[in-house]
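Morning!

As promised:
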Amino acid sequence: MTDHTRSVTFTLNGVECTRTVPVRELLSDFLRHDRGLTGTHVGCEQGVCGACTILVDGTPIRSCLMLAVQVDGSSVETVESLAEGDELSSFQTSMKENHGLQCGFCTPGILMSVTAAQRQGRSAEETESEVLGGHICRCTGYSGIRAAIRQTWMEAHE
Ligand code: FES
Ligand code: FES
């Protein structure tokens, strides 16, 4: 009988992890169902909405478009890694202070993409247009999220 599973070893939120996964399992399903990391949300399942965005080797990717076996040897970060205990990251704090979320469905993906932009040293303007442009939010009208991005960048340069 053909074995339809593979062993993968990767770093998940700073911890090395080896798991046997079905070769066709989506990374988003693996994170949510196998690892219990339900902060990664699944909306469209076709790469459009951005809700499932996580970081693989520091790059934002749609986890609904990637297979779990593809992260073998990589470093994976999910939204659960952003806060340190009760201490929110700078952008999480700004999102809270600027009412950047309502239902919160889109929020984890936005947090991950904006965090990557912060680390890459991208400008607030570029982050607002190009990064936020890859995420669909049906609740906020984006104004609170834009304000949170501006506040985060401003505070970083004070
Ligand atoms: S669920 Fe992956 S982009 Fe929408
Ligand atoms: S806060 Fe509801 S979809 Fe963005």
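The mean pLDDT is 97.

Hope this helps with the figure draft.
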